[in-house]
Each structure stands twice: as structure tokens, then as C-alpha cells.
Amino acid sequence: MAGQTGQQQRDRGFREAVLGRCFVQDAVERFGDGAPEIIRQHERDHIHQVATETIVQGVPTDQVFTGSEHDDPAAAAEQQPLEKHVPRMPYYRNNLTALSQRYNLYFAAYENRIFVYRPKSALRHALPREPNLILATKPDKVAIHVGGTLDPRFHHQTNHITTGFLGREEVLVAAYDDGSVIAWYIGSIADYVDRRTAAVPTPFFRDNVGRSAWGIVVHQQSRLIAVSSNRFEVTVFAFALSRLPEALWRRDRPYNHCEACVFKRKRNWRIVIPLGDGGHNIPNISIWDDEDGFAEKVVAIDINGTLWILDIWKPKTKAIQIQHRTHVTHHWNFRHQMGWGVAVLPYESFLPAHSAAELLGLEEGDIMNSKPPLAGRWVETQKSLANVRNHPSPLSAQAVPEPEPNEIFALAPMGFEVPPLDGGAWIDDELAGNPPGGNGPALTIDVDDSDDEEEDSDSDGSAPLNMQPPAETLSSDSSDTDGSAPLHEDEIEDDSDSDGSAALPNFLEAQDWFTQLPVNYLPEQDPPPLANAYPIDAALGALEKNKNQPGWHTRIESEIEPFRDMVYLPHEGKAFSWPDSLTGRVRFHKRERVRNRNTVDQDPDVLDELASRSCIMRTYEYDIELRSINVDDGAAVVCRDPINFDPAQNMFMQHAERLNMIIHVPELSLVVVGSAIGRVVLLTPTRTPYPHGLRGEGFKVKNGFRIDWVLPTRADEEAGKRPNRSLYGIAVGPVQEAGAPGCLLRADGAPAPSPATRRYRLMLHYRDHRILSYDIGRDEKGEHLLVF
């Protein structure tokens, strides 16, 4: 089944992983002879900043075709040179590969195109030489005016892709540097790959978040897509529903008028949630579910390393801020690790642990407590790395440094924010915060009569990276160097009404592009019957009429169509209709940044209930941390630098020190954490069944994690399987079962396999186009992680 390799090491106190063969597919196997030289030329072009493509409206002119090679008339007419078959890879992005969870499909994003592959073998997971489908995208009119952050010239490049479910439909979502968010139904992609006669798949959803888009979450039960951006905010696209799930409309929940309108989901809602003071670019996000599995809060991490817990639906509540682990109140932080990854992990996917070894992967005596007076706040488990079998950079437990005495893990009481430094937290010059700006627009649907919040000026457009990219990739919001197009009406093909202005006015002067709604307005018309549970068309969904408001019906019907999309600003407790005109939409995206400066605490009962069911994993450049927001759950657990790799001598790995890829596999009780440096950590979240947790000398721990593997293993690296290049993306998904028809991973109606028989594949995609593949699983007792 799975062979065991590597030297024998002492018993770790739990049933550890078994490692078998690593399968490799290199660039020659993928593209043919000559591919390595083409890849090296791409790297030289990047180093010397050589532009070889002709860019028109943000994309190369030869990268706009969607379909397969058989559908391309140009490709069919003549043999294309090898250079056309080896795609270029953008630099300094997020996770750019993904696997479908329902179909045998692998996705890799290259610049403005997504290559769709159908792996040929259930054992090696080798990709065919030519993609089965290419999804090429171009910027729309809004994206052209938003422009790029990393590459102002070629601004329509992918930053991140992911797969997920909206109800029963699996979708592929891509986020772009020009703020574009594009989604496809994977079922349509699978039909095309299977039959070739099916229509070429087209996106079912396309929108923009106003600046470089990074983090993506697809929520199945709530039917929404959340996207973070360099506007220091999260945008939640909550699609109109034909009917609310019974668990939602039956719940006893206090609503005000604005929240009730949004929660009914009879329109498509854009929910814009800014961070609080001190927030910055947001590389990744997660969703915190309520007890019924519906989305309740967004959990975001910014590049300062700060966690933010944000209400999606409740108006005018403050953003909970959990400072960087090394943040020291009232002290200067000249340099601390940047934040990169976040995941909310439900306890139901944790394995039970009855000892320190089962809980943390090491003996109690090797657990390093934080120094007084902070003892018990957090513990370190780095010494466990000395026991990880076949670790690529083995550590000696005796050589592990003690925790720094000035490192503080800021655990705040439930619902309370960690107090910031006087005058704002210190951050590096290039990450400096924004000075306060003017007041926001006086929109309607107020929740109360509190003063309008202040906005922050839009003074920083840096990407969420700890790097110094080429000068032309840096953007400035005070000029047109961000790659965006100037907003002139005579340049815009727009049939909508507009004010005809040639220059972009200040957000405060652009009141005319809102259609304002009265507090209790609920239009009379019901939505038409829907074929799907989450229609995307703006003509689907409507709010029900409040007949106690005479006079509003005639006025509103003359101002707003009954099926207009809507915008909700929960930090202000206001809502308005989404503008029809291109000018209005661009003005909205170009508005000044705002901050959530509310002082009303989030509901402590809700927070307590959420904390009773899950905790948060946060990753930095090197470290992994697991913590609860409930101080009664004991110390947070930190493992420092689990991959232990120094890229200083490799110019192709500069600025790659970031644990920015997190994939939770609840079926296996497994979390996969990938670093762009080229290594991946497989860890098992654990939880003690004891009510008071596992007690040690001066600390207690209830939740933890143990590291099963660091991949590629030392044996794999010594065999030359790992290239001397950074990691482009990681993907995890089920292995196709025997007898599954077409692209399906499992035949419809087939019984779900047990964890002991279900195999998952982990694919590591490197910047030289090499792919390393492993199969992973759990044994019958749910403890033994198998890497086949």
C-alpha cells in the first residue's frame, strides 16, 4: 500500500506518517525537448525587465483565445513553435494552482490565462502535454480604469485561484491584479473537456473590487464569494437566493431594517467590509461559520501580521484586532514577520489527543513556555522538528533557541481589541499607514444617529509583499502610475446616463451615482422563478414591499428598477443601489479608503459560541500559529520556522519567504501549509478531551497541532526531485476512483468511501514547471497519515 522510507527515529508518541514514492513530471515531459531553455529565457527576461509581448488593454494580443488547441484556427493552420506552448509565470503572487473536488481536473493560472488539465494517471497524476482547455480573460472597462499594482503595463494577471462549492455547484474563482474577480462553473468546464462538442465555457460571474485582489473564499452553504484587496477591505458577493434556507428564516435573531434587507438575499448584494485603524493589504481571508454552518464573520490577515475579525451582516460593530505575535505594546517594532495566511479550523476536524506527544508532537519537557511575566500566554513547539522523519533540514532539539523574552503574544479578552501603540503601531516605512481624510458620503438607511465615520486617504497601493520589485511595478495613488486609465467620458463606450465630467471628482462630490433608498423601502414585485439557488443576473431578486410607507412606491419606481444590485456598508450601517454607469462604478472603486472606527463591541455571546466550535490558524513568513479567541482555552501554540530553509544564495527565491498557501482537508484532519520558498508542511490539528486542557509547568494547552511531514523530504531533495526554484502553487484533491465515468472523481450515486480508503493527491507546482505529486490518506483509526 505505502512503502516506508527514511531512517528510523525514536517513537514520537503517536502514529506518525508513512512516506512512499514521490512522482515527478518535469518541463521536458510536460512540454518537450527545449522547454528548460525557454524557461531560463523567461527568467532572464524577468531579471532584465525585458517586455516581449505586445500589450493591448492590459493583456498580450496573442493570449486572448479561449478553448482548446483543436478550436484555435491559428493553431490548426500551422504548427506553433514550442515557445507558444510554454507559458510564462508571473512573480510575487498567491496560490496559482487548484484541483477540483468533484472532477478529475487540474487548474494552473499563467498570467491572464488558466490552463485546464485532465490528469492522465491516477497513480502519477501526470498532466497531458497540451491543456484540455485554456480560459483566457481580458480586462473589462472597469478593470482598465482600476489598473494594476504589480505590473501597471500587463495589469490583468492572476494573483490567486481556488475552487469551492456554491450550494451544489462547484466553481473556479480567479482574482486578478487589476481587481477583477471572475468565476466559472466547473461542471461546464468538465462537460467541454469530456465531449469537446459542448459550448466553450464562459464565466457566470465577473466583477471588480477596486484594487489588486488577493484572498478568495467560496462559501457553500451561504452561497457567497469573499475577496480581499489592497484597498484594506474585504468584498463579499452575496448572490440573490430564490428562497432562504429554512435554518435561516426560522432563526430567532434581532434584525434592524438594513440588516434584514441584506439578509433576505432577494437581490445580489456587494458587502464591503473595511479593516480598522492600522490595517493594511490583505493576502488571505477565511470565513467563520455560525452553529448552522452559515457565514457569520470574515477573518482576515494583513501583511502587518494582524488578524481581523469582521461582522458580515451586523451594522456598526467594531473590527476585532489581534496583533502580531511579536507585537509589544508601547515598544517599537523595527522588524517583525509579515502575515500571510489564515484559516478558521472547526474542532470537528481535530484529532483527539491524550498526551503532549499526541497533542503537539513532542514530550512535555520539550515544550518551551513564554518568558515571565507572559508565561502561559503562548508556547513553542519547534523542538518537535528534530523528530520529524526525513525532514529536509533536520534540526537538533538542543540547538533550538529559547523564546525571545520580549516577544508578546497578545491574547485579548473576548470581544476586546488589543490596545495599539500611542499614535498608531510602528511599521516599516514602505508599509506606513494612511493619515485620516474627510467624511464619507451621507448615504441613507442609517441604523442610528451616530456621527459619520472618517475616511483615510488613499496613500498606499503596495502589494502584500515583503519585497522590492522593479521600480515600474510600484504604484502611487497620488498619480497615474498605478497602471489605471484616466477616467474621461469621451473614452468610454457607455450607453448609461452620466454627468459628462472629464476628470474624476472627489468621492464626496460624486453623490449622484447613488440611488438612495428610504429606511423601510421594500419594493412590491416578487422575483421571477429561478432555476438555480443563487442567480447571478441582476434582474433576479427583489425586496418585498413595506405597505406601511405610502408615497414611497411611486417615487422609488421612478428612480430605481425593481431588480437593481445593491451595496451594503456594514461599518456605516448604510445601503444603496449599485450604479449602472461605468463612470459611477469607477468612481466607487476610486473612492478614498475608509476605516472601521466603530466602538460598539461585537456580540460577546456570538463570539463565545464561535470560539466554542473552532479556532484560528495564522501563518507568517516562517512561523505557524494556532490560537483561540477565548482566553479560557489556554496558551496559543507556535512552531517557528518549520521548513528551515535559507534562500539567501538563490536569487530566484528572493521575497519568497512566506507561508501564504493554506489548504484545510477536514476529511483527513489535515492542514497543508505551503511556502513559496518551495516546501510544504503537513500538520494535524489536535485537541485534548480534558475540560481543563493539558497542563504543564506554568501553562495549559487545549488545542494544538503536530507536524507529520515537511515535503519534499530529505530523500527526495537529495535525489534531485525538488528544483532550485520557488513554489508556484499547491493543490489538494481526491484521487479519481476506479469506475468513475468521464471527468468525475466518483460515480454518481456511489457510496462515499471511508477515510481509510479515500486517497487524496497533493501536487506541488514549481516555477520551472516541474510538478511533484504525493498521495495522502488516513488509516482506519483516523490517526495514521499515509503519504503514498
From TrEMBL:
Residues 421-503 are annotated as: Disordered. InterPro entries: Crt10. Residues 475-484 have a biased composition (Low complexity). This is Pyridine nucleotide-disulfide oxidoreductase family protein. Residues 446-459 have a biased composition (Acidic residues). It comes from Colletotrichum gloeosporioides (strain Cg-14).
